[in-house]
Amino acid sequence: MSPSRFALASAALATLLAASAPALAQQPPAPPPARIEVGGEGTAYRAPDLAVTQLIVMRNAATAADALAEANEAIAAVTKAMGELGIEKRDLQTAGFQISPQYQYDNQPNGQQSPPKVVGYEVRNSLSVKVRDLAKLGDVLDRAVQLGVNEGGSINFEIDDASAISNEARRLAVADARKRAETLAEASGLKLGRVILIQDGAMRNEPLPPVPMMELKMAAPASASSRVPVETGENAVRADVRVVYELTN
Fold it and tell me: What's the maximum distance between 2 C-alpha atoms anywhere in the chain?
């Protein structure tokens, strides 16, 4: 092609593109596909396999040293007994220790109160015990009372490794989200398309309410009928998810 013909062809192409540019620029972008966002919940149940209980020794004496000595002797005996019952050292932990003066308040003849005076000391030593063999929990409590535990906190039943039950709860939550999305899509005359987003919410491990322990009294040697009955029930693990789907015709 001669230079003159090439120049003419180039000029014609440029004119054509310039004429079509406004039309191309005026075309609106394609709208994004419709979407739907839903939440899903799932709950899975499993019997607990771990109990955590607080064993508290409380002693009063005229001096702090005497109260401490008595509490130390009792808590040492309890700790030793836990080992004899098969509780490992890793499952025994000091949960609290407190020394408190005990005051006496007297009223004077004129009706005013005298300055308080110290009349003794109270020592509390708390031992947290994890019981992995739940069949031994009653024996643990019985033995603790025999050895001088005279206060108790609560018993919490837990799942030691909750990974499997947590995954089950997540699967149930995703299935719940899809069911909700399908219902909404069908009501709108549409169908579910591909998943755009899945967001895992907070996992909630909801054990049974703590079993309250009455104030424990110094006890005589336990008999078969005095063994503490224990019912473990089931724990609930809940999962929440958020899922976004595309909608199609």
Answer: 131
Domain that holds residue 153: 50-158
Provide the number of structural domains found in the chain. Answer: 2
Strands (E), 62-138: 92-104, 117-131
Cα angle vertex 147, ends 68, 231, to 5°?
120
Return left, alpha or beta for 229; rule: phi > 0 is left, psi -120 to 50 is alpha, else beta.
beta
Instruction: Please report the pLDDT score of residue 107 as a whole number.
Output: 84
Give the CA distances from residue 157 to residues 24, 46, 94, 230, 231, in Å, rounded to whole numbers and listed in that order.
69, 11, 19, 11, 10
pTM over 0.90: no
Same-domain check for residues 107 and 124: yes
Residue stretches of the chain with pLDDT short of 70: 1-27, 153, 203-227
